[in-house]
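Input structure tokens:
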């Protein structure tokens, strides 16, 4: 269950990062409120995840999910460009997240 909580926390991190961008520097109230809700959800599920997982596992996976998710949102929703070399490093990040999960023993 801790891994599921961690997944939800990571996806909520992508949510709040996306709505933060859409808030235009917190000048759009609806997106600002969605950012705050996303942060609360993300941190809440991270707290739950760290009850069953060590911080040394949970935190890097949480930030990794957020990083990869934010990259995908940037490319898909905001038409941001990434070079092929950057995509290579994104793939390495995904491999690192999977490697932490597989080798953590949790």
């Amino acid at each position: 269950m801790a891994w599921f909580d961690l997944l939800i926390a990571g996806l909520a991190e992508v949510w709040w990062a996306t709505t933060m961008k859409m808030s235009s520097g917190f000048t759009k109230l609806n997106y600002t409120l969605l950012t705050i809700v996303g942060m609360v959800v993300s941190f809440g599920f991270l707290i739950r995840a760290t009850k069953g997982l060590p911080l040394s596992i949970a935190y890097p996976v949480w930030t990794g999910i957020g990083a990869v998710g934010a990259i995908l949102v940037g490319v898909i929703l905001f038409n941001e460009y990434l070079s092929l070399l950057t995509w290579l490093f994104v793939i390495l990040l995904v491999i690192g997240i999977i490697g932490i999960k597989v080798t953590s023993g949790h």
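The chain has a mean pLDDT of 96. Residues 29-52 form the longest helix (24 residues).
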